[in-house]
Fold this sequence. Notes:
By secondary structure, this protein is α+β, with helices and mostly antiparallel strands. The chain has one domain: 2-Layer Sandwich (BirA Bifunctional Protein, domain 2), CATH 3.30.930. It is built from three helices and six strands; from the N terminus they run βααβββββα. Strands 1, 2, 3, 4, 5 and 6 form a six-stranded antiparallel sheet that branches. A hairpin with a 2-residue loop joins strand 5 and strand 6. The longest helix is centred in the C-terminal third of the chain and has 20 residues. The chain is globular.
Amino acid sequence: HGPGQWVCFVLTPLQVFTGDSRGVRKAVYQILENVRQVASDYLPEAHLREGNELGIWSKQGKLASVGIKIRDGYVSSGFALNCIGTPESFLNIDPCGIVGSRPDFILRNIQDPASLAEAFLRISTKIVEVFEKQKI
């Protein structure tokens, strides 16, 4: 993880989150769909890619990835969302090892600190709103 990237954890019983005590794949896709909803407030073209490029992408690059850990029936991992790019962000790194791919950031056009603070508040509020819909 690097500068400008938010790492958020989902801590919940798998059964509660997905309705299936063995629904690991469901959990991955539910987390990604929730993150897509958050990202689409800033980049409406945010979309899910599957297979080797699993994650949330924009037209310009990868916005978010997911990592899942299940132990004793609990989801105890989450996602990384690229919020704001810095000159050091992902320097010489291909997101998720996908050669030629680039990261993208949902706040790529915000420069002043007041607007940035407001955007971070909106993003964190949206994350809570989207995940609370599932009563986790």
